[in-house]
Amino acid sequence: RLQKIDNDYYPETLYRMYIINAGSGFKLVWNTVKTFLDPQTTSKIHVLGHRCQSTLLEVIDEGQLPEFLGGTCTCADQGGCLRSNKGPWKDPEILKLVQSGDAEVAISNSEGRVI
C-alpha cells in the first residue's frame, strides 16, 4: 500500500541515487528488493562496491567529493564532510537570488528536457 501511495503521489521524483561501499550481502538483498520496485526507478539506483571513485567522479566534481571517497573536499572548517551542511542552499549568490525573488527554476526530466 505504501508503495502505491508513493507511486501515485510522488511519481518519479528520484533523479539518481548511488549506494556506495555496498558489500556482497547488500547486493544479494538488493537483487531481491528491486523486483518489488518500478523498473524505471531501479534503473536510477546504482549500487557500487568499494572501488567507486571513478564512477563518482563522473557525476561529482572532485572538489565536492569527500576525501574518503576519493575527492579533495575536507570541509575542515566544519568538522569534516560528514558534519558539514555544505550545499547550494548555502551559496551566497543563490541565497541572494532566492531572497530577492529573482530566482528562476527550470525542472528537467532524466533526458534533460525542460518539463
TrEMBL record:
Its main location: membrane. InterPro entries: CRAL-TRIO_dom, CRAL-TRIO_dom_sf, PI/PC_transfer. It comes from the Eukaryota. The keyword Disulfide bond does not apply. GO terms for biological process: protein transport. It holds the Pfam family CRAL_TRIO. Residues 1-77 form the CRAL-TRIO domain. GO terms for cellular component: Golgi membrane; plasma membrane. Keywords: Golgi apparatus, Protein transport, Transport. It is a peripheral membrane protein. It is found in: Cell membrane; Golgi apparatus membrane. Gene3D superfamilies: CRAL-TRIO lipid binding domain. The keyword Endoplasmic reticulum does not apply. Transmembrane segments: none annotated. Belongs to the SFH family. PANTHER family: CRAL-TRIO DOMAIN-CONTAINING PROTEIN YKL091C-RELATED (PTHR45657), PHOSPHATIDYLINOSITOL_PHOSPHATIDYLCHOLINE TRANSFER PROTEIN SFH6 (PTHR45657:SF5). This is CRAL-TRIO domain-containing protein. It comes from Opuntia streptacantha (Prickly pear cactus). The lineage of its organism: Eukaryota, Viridiplantae, Streptophyta, Embryophyta, Tracheophyta.
